[in-house]
Amino acid sequence: MFRALIVGVTFGSAPASEQALDEACALAASAGYLPVDRVAVRRPRPDAALSMGSGKAEEIKARIEAEDIGFVIFDNPLSPVQQRNLNRLWGVPVLDRTELILDIFAQRARSNEGKLQVELARIEHQLTRLVRGWTHLERQRGGIGQRGGPGEKQIELDRRMLDGKARRLRERLHRLARQRRTRRRARGRNDAYMVSLVGYTNAGKSTLFNALTGAGTYEADQLFATLDTLTRRLRLPNGEMVVLSDTVGFVRDLPHQLVEAFRATLEETAQADLLLHVVDVSAADRDEQVEQVERVLAEIGAAEVPTIVVFNKIDAAGLTPEVGRDPCGSIDRLWVSSRTGEGLDRLRAVLAERAAASRTVGQADAGQADAGSQSQLQHIDGGAPEAEPADHQPVVVPMAASGPSGARA
Fold first, then answer.
1. For residue 382, what pLDDT is reported?
2. What is the pLDDT of residues 225-244, one digit of tens each?
3. Which helix (H) or strand (E) holds 176?
4. Strands 230-235 and 241-246
5. 152: number of Cβ within 10 Å
6. In this structure, are strands 307-312 and 274-280 parallel, antiparallel, or unpaired?
């Protein structure tokens, strides 16, 4: 493994977060690096050339040489100029947070669509790196037998090449998105109740997915262990059938390029009937993780989808299974352990209740639509219906009052 130094720079009065550096170390380990040390830096404002002060940069250089460090990974975004200058000063490759996450995604993508999405995100990031990033790109090309037009700069050639690759990738992803929409419409015609697992990375979504469906997908105690969306049918205790999907995990400061590249996949979350927001209840910064997930859900148009919060890993937090209810009395929070199975029977029961209620509402809506169509046809065919004879009185049948069991969960 490559020995890496983790650097976190905090600007202004923003509070320094040990959890942020812990997460940066976990991301580095997930990408295949060995975090050997960490450095926390505070500055009033970013330095345009180095992001940090020159004195601190020299101090880190001495540590790199003394500890035989091969990579420096920043838990912050770096400009192309800052990255180039630090590379030259320290003599080792320098990565920022965006490049680190892109590297992880490139390693973990397994499906054809996932690989295309990651490749598109990496190309779009490379396009931002071309802007005044490297002096060798300022040489001009041209002349007989040369690539490019007369006087065309190398940076322009590279940008044109990357733009072409990005365009071709978008076209292929667009075709895959159409196929995904076709499959989604087919599920809709089958009246399938769709449930999506969402949550912060390493919250235990894949473990919960396996515990519910028995799918046997890869799971590990690491960030972004799985990337590709996986869908399975799940039969519930009352006989209801739901379609359960495990989606990519979210993370703090998820690169914009990845959100855009994975938008077609993430938008399937917005089409779900129910979201299970899986939260690692043992995490010290779980409130911040919940906030980050809700921010991404709002960005992809899934903020209004009905949601049940599943507090996972109660075995690690020393808690017991329980439920929480909203002001209407419906269960909207559950505490479970996908590892030990505690609380999962209650989760299955809640899913069965939601699916049954959704089917009942759907059938009622369909009945009302049919009644409206019949009324319209009668009006078209013969105008108003004939009046009943005076001696014919309709029979009034009293309706049974709906009890609590008829309420929608």
1. 53
2. 656 678 888 999 888 889 99
3. helix 154-189
4. antiparallel
5. 15
6. parallel
Task: Sheet with 193-199: list strands edge to edge.
Answer: 230-235, 241-246, 193-199, 274-280, 307-312, 331-335, 322-325
- The encoded tokens of residue 260 equal 């855009």
Amino acid residing at 276: L
Planar angle of CA 224, 229, 232, nearest 5 degrees: 125
User: Which residues touch 298 (CB under 8 Å, ≥6 apart)?
Assistant: none
More confident residue, 188 or 398: 188
The answer to whether residues 142 and 151 touch, using CB atoms and an 8 Å cutoff, is yes
Q: Residue 149 pLDDT more than 90?
A: no
The whole-angstrom separation of Cα 89 and Cα 150 is 35
The answer to whether 286 and 209 have CB atoms below 8 angstroms apart is no
- pLDDT, one tens digit per residue, over 90-120 is 999 999 988 888 888 888 777 787 788 888 8
> Average pLDDT of 48-69?
93
**Whole-prediction pTM value?**
0.71
Give the Cα separation of 165 and 291 in Å (integer). Answer: 35
State percent of the chain over pLDDT 70.
75
3-state SS of 332-353?
Answer: EEEECCCCCCCCHHHHHHHHHH
Report the alpha-carbon distance of residue 297 to residue 276 in Å, rounded: 12
CB 96 within 8 A of CB 46: no
User: Which tokens hold the place of 192?
Assistant: 């399938």
Tokens representing 409 are 């969960």
CA distance 35 to 38: 8
Measured in degrees and rounded to the nearest 5, phi and psi for residue 190 equal: -85, 10
Q: Per residue in 346-389, pLDDT tens?
A: 999 999 999 998 877 655 454 554 555 455 545 545 554 444 44
Q: CB-side exposure of 230: number of CA atoms within 13 Å?
A: 22
Spatial distance between the Cα atoms of 36 and 48, rounded to a whole number of angstroms: 27
* Closest among 296, 273, 170, 180 to 229, alpha carbons compared: 180
Q: In whole angstroms, what is the distance from residue 385 CA to residue 229 CA?
A: 54
R_g over Cα of the chain: 28
- Alpha-carbon distance of 231 to 243, in angstroms, equals 7
Sign of CA dihedral 24, 261, 267, 78: positive
Question: Can you say whether residue 313 is alpha, beta or left, with left for phi > 0 and alpha for psi between -120 and 50 degrees?
Answer: left
